[in-house]
Design a protein that fits this description.
alpha+beta, 5 strands, 43% helix, 29% strand, elongated
């Protein structure tokens, strides 16, 4: 699902025009991005937790050539699913 499809589903669930829910979707993504930039953990009870991590500089290999390549230090995000999300996705078998 991409951002547009997510927005369309939110609009359908809320019974609101797509233009209004596009603002909600954009605001949610902006808040999450700002929190990650500020090294804040975001916990949505039942859904999961997003938390920023710092990855140190490390040596890797180019898969095509096999030559060593240096991966620079960077920040990334980890997601840990919540109890209710895991229950929801595992009961759909």
């Amino acid at each position: 699902m991409n951002k547009t499809e997510l927005n369309n589903r939110i609009a359908d669930v809320m019974g609101k025009p797509h233009s209004h829910t596009a603002e909600y979707t954009a605001a949610l993504l902006q808040v999450l991005g700002e929190a990650m930039t500020n090294d804040e953990r975001v916990a949505i009870i039942g859904f999961g937790t997003f938390h920023p991590i710092h990855q140190s500089e490390r040596l890797a290999r180019n898969p095509k050539t096999g030559e060593p390549a240096l991966i620079k230090q960077r920040r990334s995000v980890k997601f840990k699913p919540g109890k209710y999300l895991l229950a929801q996705i595992n009961n759909r078998e």
